[in-house]
Amino acid sequence: MTAPADLEAVELANTAFYETMERGDFDELSDLWLDGDSDVEISCIHPGWPVLTGRGEVLRSYALIMANTEYIQFFLTDVKVALAGDIALVTCTENILSGGPAEESGELGPLVGQLVVATNVFRRTRDGWKLWSHHGSPVLAESDESDEGTDSED
Predict the structure, then answer these.
(1) How confident is the model at residue 40, as a pLDDT?
(2) Which Pfam family, any one of them, does this sequence belong to (predicted)?
(3) Structural domain total, the chain
(4) Distance from CA of residue 21 to its chain's centroid?
(5) Across the chain, how many H-helices and E-strands are there?
(6) C-alpha–C-alpha distance, residues 120 and 58, integer Å
(7) Concatenated DSSP letters of 3-66
(8) What is the CATH number of the domain that holds 15?
(9) Which of 22, 34, 99, 129 suits 87 as a labelling partner, its CA being 20 to 30 A distant?
(10) Residue 48 lies in a domain
(11) Measured between alpha carbons, how far is 18 from 24 in angstroms, rounded to an integer?
């Protein structure tokens, strides 16, 4: 039986991951991932990127994203948590609003919205739940029920 305290702790760890990215706190983000002393390598797949493996590669990718993103906000929906012993799986939809600096003025440029479905795998450690793997895939098309059942002459 899954303890409610474990579910809550995993949900808090997942929320901390996204809130830390919103704040651009690289040191805190680094602390959320399994450390290099772990018996397994961490991995990350950002939308459109190849698989990144190992603490150095994964954390460099977040440093790059943070350095090139002026503003980012995540609205998580469809969050589901599954636990199996010391492993937790979180799936969710990341409704992302982001923007970079405008080309000339240096002010915040236009905001862009994006939908990403994500899987975050956590592992219980003596220091709490730590990220083992993150996989984000873009939602390329929304289902449009009004097009179902219509014939096309193309």
Answers:
(1) 85
(2) SnoaL_3
(3) 1
(4) 9
(5) 3, 6
(6) 14
(7) -HHHHHHHHHHHHHHHHHHHHT-HHHHHHHB--TTSSS--EEE-TTSPPEESHHHHHHHHHHHH
(8) 3.10.450.50
(9) 22
(10) yes
(11) 10
